[in-house]
Structure formats: C-alpha cells, structure tokens
Amino acid sequence: MDNGATAAGAAAAAESPSPIRKIITVAAIAAGVQFGWALQLSLLTPYVQTLGVPHAWASFIWLCGPLSGLIVQPIVGYYSDRCTSRFGRRRPFITIGALSVISAVFLIGFAKDIGHRAGDSLEKSLKLRAVAIFVVGFWVLDVANNMLQGPCRALLADLSANNHKMMRTANGWFSFFMAVGNVLGYAAGSYSKLYKALPFTKTKACDTDCANLKSCFVIDIILLFIVTVTAVTTVTEKQLTKEARDEDSKTASTPFIGELISAFKTLKKPMWILLLVTCLNWMAWFPFLLFDTDWMGTEVYGGKVKGNQSQARLYHNGVRAGALGLMINSIILGLTSLALEPVGRVIGGVTNLWGLVNVILCLCLASTVVITKMAEAWRSSHGPDNNLSPPVNIKVSALAVFGVLGVPLAVTYSIPFALASIYCSTTGGGQGLSLGVLNLSIVIPQMFVSVISGPLDDAFGGGNLPAFVLGSIAAAFSALMAIFLLPKPPKQVSLAPGMGGGH
C-alpha cells in the first residue's frame, strides 16, 4: 500500500520524527482492535453454535476475514495515501473504521436480544433472526478491522518520518499493544462472572454465557472509543494538498492493482518459495486459531453445546479454559518476540529458525490427538455420564499446547514479513507492495480452511481433530521447505514484530 503519495513521502523525509508519546498514542489503538479479535478467536465459534448454526457450517462465517483482507486493505491503503481531507490522510479512515467496529460489536453482542425482539422463539434451537444479525455484525466487524488497522500502521510510518529506527520502535509499540489487547480479551473471555459487573447484559434471551460475551464486547467498545478519540484528537497530520496528490498521480506509472499484477509477473524464485512456505504455514495455523476453544469444550472437557444442562456447563467451562490458554499463548508470544533475533543467529539464520518452530507447530497440533484420546479414555473409565471436568494432567497438557504454540506464532508474525521486504526490494514496489503480495498467501489458505474444515470435521464425526491433523501435515511440509528450499537472506534482516496475520 506504500506505492503512492510520493510527494508526501518526500516531505516526510525532510521532517523529524514525531515525539514517542504520539507514536504510543496511535499504537494504543491496536489494544482495542486486538481485544475484539481475541474475543472473536476464543468465543465466537462456540457462541454462533448456541444460535443454532451447525458446527460444520460455523467455519463459513469466518470467510469474511480473508475476503476483506484481500479487498479492503489494498483499497483503503490506496485511497488513504491520496486523501486530501483537512483532518489528514489517515485519521478520517481511522475514525470511520473505529465507529464501524463499535457498531458491529454492538450487533454481535446484542444479536440474541435483537433477534428475540424481532420474533425469535426461545424454545427453538435455531434462531434465524439472531443468526442474520450476528452474521451482518461479524462481516462488518472484519471489514472495519481491516479499514482501521491499515491506516493505523500507515500513520505510524508517517509519524516516523522515514526514520528507520523510529519505525522499528513504532512497530514494537504496536506489537506491544496487540499483546495487551490479546491478554485483556482472553482474560475477559475466561472469567465466568464478568456479567455481574454489567448486570443489564443478562436478559431473558441472553443467558449467563451469552451475558459474559456481551459484557466483553461492551468493555471492548469502551476501550476502543477511548483510545481512538485520544489518538485522533491529540495527534495531528499535515493536510495533503490536491496539487501534491495530482503531481504524485502524474509520476506514478500504474495504479496499485496494476503494480500488484506487475509484481507477480516479476517475482523471483525466492519470493515464490516464501509465498508457498507462508501459505502452508497459515494452512497449519488457521484450523487451531478458529476452533481451539471449541476443541477444549468438546474434545477435552467432553461437553456439548446443545446437550443437557451438565453437558452445556462442561462445554462452556472448556471454552473458558481455552480462553485462558490463549491468554497464556499471548504472554509467551510477547516474550518470545524479544528473543527472535539473537536466537536466529545462534541456530544459523532466520530460515532455520522458521523451520524449527514449524516442527514445533507440527508436533503441537499432532499432540491434540493424543490429549483428546487421553480425555476420552478418562471419561470412558468414569462412565459416559459422569459430567466431570477432566483431571489436572489433561488440563495442564492442553494448556501447555496453547503456551508452547506462542513460540511459533511469534515467528509467524515477524519472519515472513521481514523476508518479503528483502526478496521484493528489487521490484520497485517497496514494503507496502511486498506485504500486499505476501498477504495473498495468508488470506488464500484462510479461505481454504474456512471452506473445508467444517465439512471435513463433520465427515469424520463432527470433531475438530481432522482439521488439526491437516494443519500438522501442512506445518511439516512448511518446516522442510523453510529449512531446505528457502534462500537465506542477508544477515541484517530485522525480526522486529508488528505485522500480525489473520486479517
């Protein structure tokens, strides 16, 4: 997305970077965005099943993420580079994106209440009106997230005034607030009595678990509103004049889409290998990212989202345990990010590091089968209707998988983006274009997994393990290709994180 605004970029190069407090203020928006994203990952797949949507079809709702990532971010980035609003190039898009996120979160959180008022019966398992409201809100949320994140990252680059050290610092702060948002979101999702702080969330149509999710989203609305208002009112931008925009349009050889197509035609072998390794890597990640808490509730705890009261309680206990696991995962991710560069040097380069952590990813996904069989054997030995939570050793094993996966996730959020910037440096597109190309290798596997994982799991009995096994196989191939086929980049590659995937 950095292909345009040449005149504005030249002007920025002549300026000094903005104070660090302004960069921190803008980066803090990531906490509000990631809070909602953490809730999406940990709670929304189980929640949509309470609306009556079958597990096999729940994954199709997630298709909006990759579709909006494929379409919305390039368009928003392209036009934010050329925006001549008196409020600046980025702040109008940030404001519209934040308001859209808040509206979508409200629709999702209150879908059951709105659906009930619109005529949904409390006795029927399938609540069509609530499902329709939820889907609209969910898709708007994905579009709005993409509309918000791109301009936020671009504004951080603008404030850094092409100072590379400041840009690394800005990305570091953005990653820090992503971790903060993750921890807050997963912590809120794992606390079963949060609704008591907001008692109005529990209604006739919305039970305790629904009220907890609604409370989480209300908190997210408040957090995102505060950080966004603070950022857009305290951080100012220089207006891009129409003359500068028109001059840039004359010097640009092709529009963004044209440059993207041209970039594909001129891609070198290292970049094609990177795209394939990244594609396999995300094909491994998405089944777990979409269904990790559902796995905890169904396979590990043995609950049923549509079972009797005891089975439903087990399921939701497992979902909350999964949210706790995701919080642990975020903490490990943040700590690991600080050690990537020195560890990469010790083991012989970033490609070896990426291959090694993909082996870890492969083993962790395969271990979900072992943990599931352990839980099933324990339940079988205690009777099928014992309705007891699994023993400590099984819980700890499952949570350990979440924690260990924080290590490869930290690498996934950094190394591919650093390598893309290096490999595409000769195409003339710059970092924005190289990351736009790389984004395709992230959203395409997400679309594939979203379409195939539900029917695949349903074909093998309705559980999550088939998709996890598919992910484990993809991780193994990704590891081998990263170690033996991916060319080693120059030693000065920076692994500073800050380019998250999935959206």
Q: Can you walk me through this structure?
A:
The chain is mainly alpha-helical. The protein is built from 21 helices and no strands. The model is unreliable at 1-14, 425-432 and 492-503 (pLDDT under 50).
Question: Topology, pairings included?
Answer:
Elements: H1 6-13, H2 20-27, H3 29-50, H4 55-58, H5 64-80, H6 91-109, H7 111-117, H8 128-160, H9 164-190, H10 208-234, H11 242-251, H12 256-265, H13 269-300, H14 309-337, H15 340-346, H16 350-381, H17 392-404, H18 406-412, H19 415-423, H20 430-459, H21 465-484
Helix pairs in contact: 2-8, 2-9, 3-8, 3-9, 3-10, 3-13, 3-14, 5-8, 5-20, 6-8, 6-10, 7-8, 8-9, 9-14, 12-20, 13-14, 13-16, 13-19, 13-20, 13-21, 14-17, 14-18, 15-16, 16-17, 16-18, 16-21, 19-20
Nearest-angstrom radius of gyration?
23 Å
Number of helices: 21
**Helices and strands: which structural class?**
mainly alpha
What is the typical, i.e. mean, pLDDT? 77
Main β-sheet: number of strands, strand sense, barrel status? none
Note the gap between the termini. 15 Å
